[in-house]
Amino acid sequence: MRWLHGHVLVYDDHGGNQARDAAEALVRSGATVEIVTPERTLSPDVGSLTASGCVNSLAENGVAVTVLRRLHGVTRTPDGLEAELGVDGFAFREHHTFDGVVAEVGTEPVQELYDELLDASINLGAVDLAELLDHRPQSVVRNEDGSFRLFRIGDAVTSRNVHAAMLDAARLCRTI
Ligand SMILES: Cc1cc2nc3c(=O)[nH]c(=O)nc-3n(C[C@H](O)[C@H](O)[C@H](O)COP(=O)(O)OP(=O)(O)OC[C@H]3O[C@@H](n4cnc5c(N)ncnc54)[C@H](O)[C@@H]3O)c2cc1C
Questions:
Q1: In a 3-state reduction of DSSP, which class is residue 143?
Q2: Is residue 107 within 6 Å of ligand 1 at its C-beta?
Q3: CA atoms of 63 and 96, how far apart (whole Å)
Q4: Residue 44 CA, ligand 1 centroid: distance in Å
């Protein structure tokens, strides 16, 4: 990221876990950095002992942190890149100008395989939540001609983390 200089916005919609590395790399290349996240805390998944080390590293690198702001858009203006930031659930908007913007917004599921398999499945991809939470085998039948059960887990549902993917898999598979 040596091409990003000046004042750079590093946005992370998951609370800053991925943003920290980017922020530190940008500072090393001479930029001043502000991390912005819609979460209420920075790195909510990181335990308190480890988190204090991360916060110290950001402080030593002069990285500013703004929580509770979602990035709604970036517009190129004669002065730079104007970021539109807002508070979730409200119409409030504020605009700040940066020289560069780095945004970490997760991944999009690739669902072609799931879509192809859907019509041939017994459950048409449906999950019975009561059975899932009771640790019972899935019994939904929406297609009598189906020949297998089809489930989406992990990032195939939406961009999350390793723990979510393992929990999805464990809940469904330990009853098989
Ligand atoms: C840069 C980055 C950093 C991350 N850091 C963290 C972190 O520090 N901690 C954390 O908890 N999470 C982190 N995550 C998120 C984490 O990697 C994912 O949430 C997790 O890997 C999801 O697991 P999954 O099994 O659902 O999907 P994946 O791990 O993506 O596994 C899906 C697998 O299916 C294979 N596949 C896809 N299509 C087909 C096909 N048609 N046929 C056969 N195989 C196929 C893929 O090759 C892949 O191996 C990070 C993600 C990214 C992108």
A1: coil
A2: yes
A3: 16
A4: 20
